[in-house]
Design a protein that fits this description.
single chain, alpha/beta, seven-stranded mixed sheet, 37% helix, 23% strand, globular
């Protein structure tokens, strides 16, 4: 069984598909802890709904390294095997990435390398502005180079003429859950 730790700063939209796959027996894993740096993040509701331990760690008035050490401490206490970044709006320090080498998966709302470094709605706005015919999501291993780590899984969907940022985001987020589940399964086979 793979012990998961989740870092998130926003809604945590990818938590339910992962948790539901675990409950259904489709994924041999457990979510040990969800950690956020945003006390108002809706990801806290997901932790409560699924009965998962939850921690708020404030990043303000701390160096990146100090903040990351506090995260690592919590992950180690829970004996986490694999860290998932789900809407985590912080860049991790090099020491953290080295410590968790090949054990951190990030989701990006585009088909990398397209729109690398972009975040959330900005990515979907760019897709629409550039009139891309397809988009999707990418799960990749985290390295010190933002959005440059080895790609684990990509899922694609079409872009339609009547799409808005919100409709495109919703379609891509549905793919993210599937991509995470597939990525966790393949990581577990290594």
């Amino acid at each position: 069984m793979i012990k998961l730790g989740i870092l998130g700063s926003t809604k945590g939209s990818d938590v339910p598909p992962i948790a539901d796959a675990i409950i259904a027996g489709e994924l041999d894993a457990s979510i040990e802890i969800i950690i956020t740096n945003n006390k108002d993040a809706l990801i806290a509701d997901k932790a409560l709904k699924y009965g998962v331990d939850f921690a708020f760690i404030d990043h303000k008035n701390k160096s990146r390294e100090e903040f990351d050490k506090q995260i690592s401490k919590k992950l180690l206490e829970k004996e986490v095997d694999l860290v998932l970044l789900i809407g985590f709006m912080r860049i991790l320090s090099a020491p953290f990435i080295k410590m968790w080498d090949k054990k951190i998966l990030n989701v990006h709302p585009s088909l990398l390398p397209k729109y690398a470094g972009g975040m959330n709605n900005n990515v979907h706005e760019s897709v629409l502005k550039n009139e891309d015919k397809e988009t999707g999501c990418t799960i990749h291993l985290v390295t010190t180079q933002v959005d440059q780590g080895p790609i684990v899984v990509q899922k694609k969907c079409g872009v339609f003429k009547n799409d808005t940022v919100e409709s495109l985001k919703n379609r891509v987020q549905r793919l993210e859950g599937e991509a995470f589940i597939e990525s966790i399964k393949s990581w577990g086979k290594k």
